[in-house]
Amino acid sequence: MINKDTLDKILSRVEKPARYIGNEINSYKKNTKEVKVRFAFAFPDIYEVGMSHLGLHILYNLLNKEEDVFCERVFAPWIDMEHELRKHNIPLYALESKDPINKFDFVGFTLQYEMSYTNILNMLDLGHIPLLSKDRKEEDPFIIAGGPCAYNPEPLADIIDFFVIGESEELILEIIEAYKKWKENNRTREEFLEDVSQIKGVYVPKFYEVTYNQDGTIKEFTPKAQRYPSVIKKRIIKKLDEVYFPDRVIVPYIETVHDRVMLEIFRGCTRGCRFCQAGMIYRPVRERSVDKLLDHAQKLVEITGHEEISLSSLSTSDYSKLEELVKSLINKFKDKKIGLSLPSLRLDSFSLDIIQEIQKVRKTGLTFAPEAGSQRLRDIINKGINEEDLINSVRDAFYLGWSTVKLYFMIGLPYENYDDILGIKDLAYKVKDTYFGLPKDKRKGNLKVTVSTSCFVPKPFTPFQWFGQDTIETFKEKQKYLGSNIKDKKITYNFHDPELSFLEAVFARGDRKLSKVLIRAWQKGCKFDGWADYFNYEKWMETFREAGIDPSFYANRHREYNEILPWDFIDVGVSKKYLINENEKAKNGILTRDCRKGCTGCGINISFTGGVC
Amino acid sequence: MSTIRVKFSKKDEMKYISHLDLMRLFQRAFRRAGIPVRYSQGFNPHPKFSLATALPIGVTSDGEYMDVELENDIDKDEFIKRLNDVLPRGVRILSSKYIKTGKSLMSLIEWSDYVIEFCTTDGISKEDMENCIREILKKDEIYIKKVKIKNKKETIKEVDIRSSIKNLNLLVVEDKRIIIRTTLKSGSKGNLKPKYIIDIINKTGNIEIVDDSIKIHRLELYSQKNGNLVSPLNCE
Ligand code: SF4
Questions:
Q1: How far does the centroid of ligand 1 lie from the alpha carbon of residue A310, in Å?
Q2: Alpha-carbon Rg of chain B, whole angstroms?
Q3: Residues A301, A249: contact at Cβ < 8 Å?
Q4: How many Cα atoms are found within 13 Å in the side-chain-facing hemisphere of A471?
Q5: Is A417 exposed, middle or buried (0-12, 13-18, 19+ CB in 10 A)?
Q6: Who among A24, A301, A336 is closest to B88 (CB)?
Q7: Cβ-Cβ contacts under 8 Å for A435 (sequence gap 6 or more)
Q8: Would you say residue A337 has pLDDT above 90?
Q9: DSSP A151
Q10: Which of B14, B24, B58 faces A12 most closely, judged by CB atoms?
Q11: Atom in ligand 1 nearest the alpha carbon of residue A270
């Protein structure tokens, strides 16, 4: 354990010291000498962000349910805390035992966002763990990683010892079992990697070789020996009702991003929006039953004392029994003054009834995500929404007393032109006209429309994975064009930083050459890149120049269908043929139906069973 | 409807929890304990409980108070047990008492008793330290600079805080370590933060104090009754 007195002194000097103390209600305390496996769940961002992540709570409790496993948490320390840790030479420690993370058997990172990669390096360094997998010694922990960004693990290939691809509730326990056996037999680090390489869903980068063509594209990606799988198949949980669901979750002391009970109602999405990675990689759709959910909600409210429940899933309104669920939850918890929030409702099946029910407890603004400004472009991305739907929903909402509307769009979508961008403005103006079209006595509040545009980032395993991202200059031009066209005091225009989206695109579709760029950038001081105050684009560009790597090769270049993509060896169940077909349909603006209305042939029902397909 | 007045402690790492976080912590603890707290009416119903004063981050305490309005009476020992079962290590309910609702708890508080520990850079004799304290208590006026933020503007005001210091005693002098006990004005009618006492000692005795070494612990909060200090539990 690190020195308590020193820690005490440090904590009185940093901002929000409660981030670093642990001891929260429902956190685990175990005797570290009595357990066989020590696992540090590492979240490469600050406490408030990490504690809002449902996956952390699931895995933390799942692992701690095992008597001989102790799972603890570690988050990226904020700049002031890092400074103190370094000054006093205190290694990064896990919250529960306050032991340095290099004393653990595993340090497991969750990869939620490309721009947190430098934080991984920073945490390893603060934990006195070698940054490169090849430099780690027998006594060092195994550094593993999972989560959505692990679907293209290659940029971290030199850093992470092995990756877990897909949903890991079952997989992680298999790894723990393998570890216990391995430890008993006192074998080498290398041998453990050999063992886990045989577990389905595990990817050990060092057992694979990549060769390149002259133009920098991949020539071949091959296992170094026959015993390593040439395709890594993602893991999924077949029956969601039966899989472990935590009946206790940690209650933070400080306000976190989602400071409430999170109820995961289903996994996957059937809509098939062509830009959406989550919609492709989390297939098939698997729902939890209303009964189970009510049961979980009850238990979680009792054990946490939280005053709010939020339903979590992609496209929440697609849950087949949403009305039943929401009504039951409201009935059950109304008297206890417990609120309910639904984060992602789609506007086509937008049910104001439901929202209205909920608003009896708390009132929030309304958000819609039409994603694109024109019908042509919405068809291209397969966002099956039309203007009428939006306007009708908005009108209803205004009638019911709402006056704050947020509209989310992307710019730089494939095949976009300036008319599509103008469409964003038109839509916002139509929303405004709808409000003022209402009889005066029906208008409540003061209209405020917020238009936000993010910059499109092409992601692996989507039909747009071959598409070259707009350059930063083009993004800026488009933002300026839209901004200069929106001239209304009621409408506010916000936009994302294209430099950041550019780097996101580089790492989303990068290959293993990027590991060295990451390390160099971190050495130059890059960290918390997702935080506007700390993101330093110049430093990144300098790093790329020094490394002799052209970032636009990854971000802006169009790929041909026959190019070997860095993540091609991963099987997410959705076939490449389907993705190509979808991309071709996009070119002509042909829609693909929601696969709940009939199979669209993505392939998930062939390679994976279970779910609605 | 009844109101129960509760005394509790806040120690160990819980000293890093802010006042607002502590409010949230209790709110959730009441739910977990299944204690029937009354809620405010309106859009955002809030459980009705109030804390006596805000304890600064970093300060530990054995004498914090809150009033809780209950929907229906529960046995006070039962109340303590149920809450303590669900509270994190570091926060403990020490005692409680049903009170007739009258003055708000906040307005009752007038004094705080603190134990303050610190180290001096060079070490100091018992005599010198005693002299320093005597000198402080002898003064009719003690001016300190208080920073006030009003309308986002920072103003520094010189204020006389002599009347805010009731007691100041030396408990321990041990090489470089010094422990004092002091009773300072607290609450809505005037509040002197214990860290000012350190500044005054530093100034009066010309004593160099190690910044890192200061530990502040609140012993008790007091109300005043017929000129005597009484615990908020006994002021009716
Ligand atoms: S509705 Fe579209 S954007 Fe939303 S999760 Fe499903 S596929 Fe993705």
A1: 19
A2: 20
A3: no
A4: 6
A5: exposed
A6: A24
A7: A394, A398, A403, A443, A447
A8: no
A9: G
A10: B58
A11: 6
pLDDT confidence band for A150 (50 / 70 / 90): very high
Tokens of B26: 């209790």
Q: Contact, A491 vs A446, CB < 8 A?
A: no
Which of B11, B14, B24, B119 best tests the A interface by mutation, with the highest count of A CBs <10 A? Answer: B24
A311 forms bridges with which residues in the sheet?
A263
Question: Which residues in chain B are contacts of A336 at CB distance < 8 A?
Answer: 31
Measured at the alpha carbon of residue A564, what is the angle toward residues A560 and A569, in degrees to the nearest 5?
Answer: 140
**Distance, CA of B180 to CA of B197 (rounded, Å):** 10
C-alpha–C-alpha distance, residues A412 and A504, integer Å: 14
Q: Is residue B132 predicted with pLDDT exceeding 90?
A: yes
Q: Of the candidates A12, A23, A253, which has its C-beta nearest B21's C-beta?
A: A253
Contact across the interface for A305 and B30, Cβ inside 8 Å: yes
Hey, what are A238's tokens? 């077949």
Closest by CA position to B223, among listed B5, B77, B26, B70: B5
Q: In degrees, to the nearest 5, what angle opens at C-alpha A428 toward C-alphas A424 and A432?
A: 165
CB B63 within 8 A of CB B115: no
**Which of the pair, B32 or A368, is modelled with greater confidence?**
B32
Interface subset of A 231-290, CB within 8 angstroms of B: 251, 253-255
Which residues of chain B lie closer than 8 angstroms to A306, CB-CB? 28, 31
Atom number in ligand 1 closest to CA A314: 5
The pLDDT > 90 percentage for chain A reads 81
* B14 contacts on A by Cβ (under 8 Å): 23
Helices first, then strands: H and E counts in chain B: 5, 11
Q: What is the pLDDT of residues B60-85, one digit of tens each?
A: 999 999 999 999 889 999 999 999 99
Q: Report the SS3 class of residue A297.
A: helix
Instruction: Note whether A28 and A96 are within 8 A (CB).
Output: yes
- Share above pLDDT 70 across residues of chain A, in percent, rounded to a whole number: 96
Q: Which long-range contacts (CB under 8 A, 24 or more apart) does A7-13 make?
A: A7/A90, A7/A98, A9/B212, A10/A81, A10/A84, A10/A85, A10/A88, A10/A90, A11/B13, A11/B16, A12/B57, A12/B58, A13/A80, A13/A84
Average pLDDT of chain A, as a whole number: 93
Q: What is the DSSP letter of A90?
A: P
Distance A269 CA to ligand 1 centre (A): 6
Tell whether the model's pLDDT for residue A362 goes beyond 50. no
CA of A153 to the centre of ligand 1 (A): 23
Looking at per-residue pLDDT, the higher value among A334 and B34 belongs to: B34
Q: Which residues of A touch B212 (CB under 8 A)?
A: 9
Q: Which residues of A touch B19 (CB under 8 A)?
A: none
**Burial zone of A408 (CB within 10 Å; 0-12 exposed, 13-18 middle, 19+ buried):** middle
Number of residues in chain B: 236
B-chain residue closest to A303, CA distance:
B32
Report which ligand 1 atom has the smallest distance to the Cα of A346: 1
Amino acid sitting at position B96: S
Residues B28, A302: C-beta atoms closer than 8 Å: no
Q: Are A338 and A360 in contact (CB under 8 A)?
A: no
Shortest alpha-carbon distance between residue A13 and chain B (Å): 9
Q: Which atom of ligand 1 is nearest to the CA of A371?
A: 3
ipTM attached to this prediction: 0.90
What's the predicted TM-score (pTM) here? 0.94
Q: Residue A25 region, left (φ>0) first, then alpha (ψ -120 to 50), else beta?
A: beta
